[in-house]
Amino acid sequence: MSAPNTRPSSPRVDAERGAPGAAAAQTADDRQHSDQRDQRDQRDQRDQRADVGVPPSPYAKSGQDLRPGVDRTARPAAHRSAERENRGVPASQPDTSSDATSDTTSHTGSDSSSDESTGSGSALAGAGASVVPTRRAPGEHPTGHTSDPHWDGPEDPPMIRRRRPRPRLGWRGLAYDWTLGKWNPGLSEKEQRIRERERQIARQLRGKHVTAFFCLKGGISKTSTTAATSIAMANLRPDPVFAIDANPDAGDLAERLVGRSEAGITGLSANVDRIGSLDDLSQYTVTAGRLTMLPGEPNPELGDSLSSMDFRRIMGVVQRYYNVVQVDCGTGVTHPLMRGILEFADTVVIPASWSITGAKRAADSISWLEQHGFEHLARTSIVVLTAKDIVSGSVNKDAVREHLSQAADLIVVPSDPHVADGALIDWEQLAPATREAYLDIAAAVTRRFPEGGWPV
């Protein structure tokens, strides 16, 4: 017969065997440990709040300290050292208290989980206080390594779908109108080129730009080219365009733009020191649509009295308010006014014709610029061949083009009775091919704007 089992019992064993009173003993033991943890947590909260300076959440319940990102089970090492000194434990002896063990466990656990997700942990209140990881730097993948230095996370999708541009020309424009926009066949290649040219003309100008319409020969549509090109630019550009009639020999730019003879440049020259506002300047200018111009001097004797210094003073006032300036020059290159104009010019447009003398004078104008210190203007010059004169079939137009090939751009303006009449230029009355040519001239001018602007 075997001996009875006399093994001493314990609360844990009794609880497993279901002995009477075991459950009560276990509950008392758990309550004691819970009270100890609560006291330690409250002490940790006070220590961390004093060290970090972060106030508790106003939404926390009584006795709680809900500060986001802080591991409330950990205590800073400085506070643990102070408690050891109060207990009389030497600094060299390792701390084996339950608090240190708990701190080590909680710190190791929180840091290890943080390191797995971010690659590094950070302490908010010194050693032992773990915080929520900081946001990843640009270029850092969630795994902690960077494979693409330009990677900065996924881009947000556009909130508005991109629509096809509305066609305005040909059957495509009619189809769009007939279907009330339900069918958009898109732009033709021709209309794409037109809109690209419009964007080029409207290109932003950073700084100032002066274009001089200049040639050694008169009577080859220099003034009409100045007027029509200025209208084309003013119609498409967001900033105002200003034209100046600087022809000392009774210039007629005002007649081509507003239909009447006006005087302005000599009056402005005499009172330039009194100009203190745009309103003061407008007393000497006229407008044609969105274009503003300073008329020339109808009296040749008064116009001949203008000097290069007068033009410099006039430009000093005009460029306070206008960045894009078009200047209609005279034919006298030896006139004192011409030196002042070319000093301000950034681009030169040289009108020419299909006649032999017209083509030769245009080429001579480029050579004159090269020989008198204006090589940059000659190198970027724009030659405009206007079919004004009726020439016979014996003129070799290919040879004329070759003769003017030294120009940077060569643009041909077709014959147009509205231009040849010499009266007021109405943009809508020009032939479509003529408008296209003047728009090409305006685009060529804006391509010479300084770098730094962009199409609008």
Automatic annotation (TrEMBL):
Q: Which GO terms describe its molecular function?
A: ATP binding; ATP hydrolysis activity
Q: Which SUPFAM superfamilies match?
A: P-loop containing nucleoside triphosphate hydrolases (SSF52540)
Q: Where is the composition biased (Low complexity)?
A: 18-27, 95-130
Report the InterPro entries cross-referenced here. Answer: P-loop_NTPase (IPR027417), ParA/MinD_ATPase (IPR050625)
Q: Could you tell me where the Basic and acidic residues compositional bias lies?
A: 28-50, 68-87, 137-153
Region spans: Disordered: 1-164
Protein name listed in UniProt = AAA domain-containing protein
GO cellular component annotations of the record: cytoplasmic side of plasma membrane; cytosol
**A GO BP entry:** negative regulation of cell division
